[in-house]
Input
Amino acid sequence: MKPAVVLLSGGLDSATTLAIARSQGYEAHVLSFAYGQRHSRELDSASRVAAALGARNRLVLTLDLRAIGGSALTGDLAVPKSRTAGEIGVGIPVTYVPARNTIFLAHALAWAEVLGAEDVFFGANVMDYSGYPDCRPEYLQAFERLADLATKAGVEGKSRFRVHAPLIRMTKAEIIRTGHTLGVDFSLTWSCYEPTADGRPCGLCDSCTLRKKGFAEAGLTDPLCYAA
Output
């Protein structure tokens, strides 16, 4: 089995991406981040998802992006609530964390080089997404070029790194159906940006809104119990 680093946040997109990597015969080395996000609930989900889907091992790196701020996920800005799908699809929201995916992919690349892996899996998506610039195909293509220029393995010609984004052009409903087919237990996943005091997903943030819409369009029942 070829080794691959899989970025795993604990959400349904990254869980489905891990399931795809495993279905393609990769030995998954899962990478998650405690980066100063509002809550640790997603890291608990990532741990359970990694175990359920047979990850080879899991590494959790701690980064203090809260010290940088600039996002509702790493600062005191309010998380947008009750926006329509049309509103979510316009502009870059305050939940965008500056350069987060570049930071995450750089760490994934470093671990991949140590593992002797040429493949990194990342659950980026440009269909049902929140306008984040670091989820676009042109960004991922540019990062692949950087990876070959910026690593010892790339310069010596030992590896040609590839960033796999199997969900890139799927709708949320298609992602959910794919995950369901591959045996993802969505009750283990977490999507909410701002859970309630009693630990339930809010049901109103952009991520909850897109998740609920995706399950409805997929014709499947979301196992999570929302506050709203």
User: Anything to note?
Assistant: The helical segments are 12-23, 41-52, 85-88, 100-115, 137-150, 152-155, 172-181, 206-218. The domain at 3-218 is CATH 3.40.50.620 (Rossmann fold). The chain has one domain: 3-218.
